[in-house]
Amino acid sequence: MTEPHPKAIFITGGASGIGRATAQLFAARGWRVGLADVDAAGLAETAAALPAGMASTYHMDVRDRAAWVTALDAFTATSGGRLDVLFNNAGIGSGGPLADTDFNELDRVIAINLMGALNGARIGHAYLRRTPGSCLLNTSSASAIYGSAGLVPYSMTKFAVRALSEGLDGEWAADGIKARAILPSFIDTPLLASPAAGSNRSIRETVTAAGLELTPVEAVAEAAWTAVHGGKVLTYVGKTAHRMAFAARWMPGKLRQMMRRGAR
């Protein structure tokens, strides 16, 4: 017996990268997809790559709380009230020495990566609790396993997203809502081409200088599916993430040395 409405996922940062790959995977498996982003052109490209009638787009900034309500109201109106997964995925990269980073850049990273995720969780709770077995899925990072030299503001926000996921998995259990986080290694998307704050290097160059590998975006989408359907709060994605998790537990001194080398 089929459900009257397919399962539904709302994805921020859906215009490219992890968001687009996740949208393609979930739509291919029969889910209705809501795509949100500040990049209207990218949203249209993602939607065009999905099966006809399976996606709707919402031009919104995760810092805008009123826009969250408007978008989730509109999306759940198309899904018969369902919100099986809210994927807090939107984020920006930022790198370079903290001492040289402009305060406006610090504010922007925290507002988008941290407050954007908090906004999604706080506002999304009312929608998730209406769908039994729903899940808040957050994009954290391998940078949340051990603080990353040269990426400190970014790493700090991703540690916070990890804490958000761990805390809400306990807090929301009584409401029948799971909280999950994926912790991918750094992903080779256009985001990494951005210049590192206070540095002549790109974020990609900062990452590779620290000895970290890049993970295919398709692997992250599969990990998102696994996280939503599995029992673990944290899902590590890619060789670098798994190595860092092992080292953080068993060889913290080695990890510390690696970060010091990367900072040089």
UniProtKB/TrEMBL annotation:
Residue ranges of domain Ketoreductase in the record: 7-180
UniProt xrefs under InterPro entries: KR_dom, NAD(P)-bd_dom_sf, SDR_fam
Keywords for this protein: Oxidoreductase
Similarity section: Belongs to the short-chain dehydrogenases/reductases (SDR) family.
The name this protein goes by in its record: SDR family oxidoreductase
